[in-house]
Amino acid sequence: MRRVLLLALLVPVFAFANECRFTAQRDFDVDSAGLATLAFALGSSDITVEGVPGLARIEVRAKACASDESWIAGLTVDQQRAGDRLSVTPHSDRGSNWSWFGSSYAYIDLRVRVPENLAIEINGSSSDAEVSGVASLAFDASSGDLRVRHVAGPLTIEVSSGDVIADDIGSVEIRRTSSGDMGLRDVKGDVKVGRGGSGDLQFSHIGGNVDVGAVGSGDVTINSVDRDVTIGSIGSGDVSVDAIGGNFTLRSRGSGDVRHHDVRGTVSVPHDNDD
Description:
Blueprint: H1 2-18, E1 22-25, E2 28-31, E3 37-43, E4 47-52, E5 57-66, E6 75-82, E7 85-92, E8 106-115, E9 119-124, E10 129-132, E11 136-141, E12 146-159, E13 164-176, E14 182-187, E15 191-196, E16 201-206, E17 210-215, E18 220-225, E19 229-234, E20 239-244, E21 248-253, E22 258-263, E23 267-268
Parallel strand pairs: 3-7, 3-9, 4-8, 4-10, 9-11, 10-12, 11-12, 12-13, 13-14, 13-15, 14-16, 15-17, 16-18, 17-19, 18-20, 19-21, 20-22, 21-23
Antiparallel strand pairs: 1-5, 2-5, 5-8, 6-7
């Protein structure tokens, strides 16, 4: 899954390089003094955010691309500051015109450098995002993919069909996911999942507890957890856990297989037919 998702994240980069007949930059810098949160309302725009130690400003580099030169003027990026919060929003006066295979398109993609102590919020529809080196991240999207690493604090995720790969994170809360796959590695604290659907959950090297509420047909694979693993319910998906430092509890299971190995605490699984 990781290789597939990484390739998927690279596709837009190559597509945009080929599908950008007319272009213009929408660049600006903002003094970050007094700011705690940087929020993006993206729609279908893709974004890369990089936290930089010692940086004292927010650097936004936005690339507007269109198939028709007359559309470029309608591609803009707004900024609004309210207290300790800065909001950045790309706009297109033609609405959603990007087409993967059609001849007409208009879009804005962003590359942003920020101080490493900023909290980042990203809200989009089909936006893909790559984020690294920030204080915290809240990501909410429909079909957008997320690649995130080196986040000191909490990562909060709400997605539908988007895939997520996260590495070196403080703690993780997945509030909702439907068909998107989730891959987490090297989480220092707890991992909490509210509800999952048909997407797979793969967690490894977790320093705290793993608590999964409910999963439908997706598979759950968890290994190398320092503390407890608790799964409320799973439908037709399979469960596999390995190298658990505490207890493993599965409260309700459907038709899927359940496998566990090297659980140092107690194991509680209904109708357990494992070897």
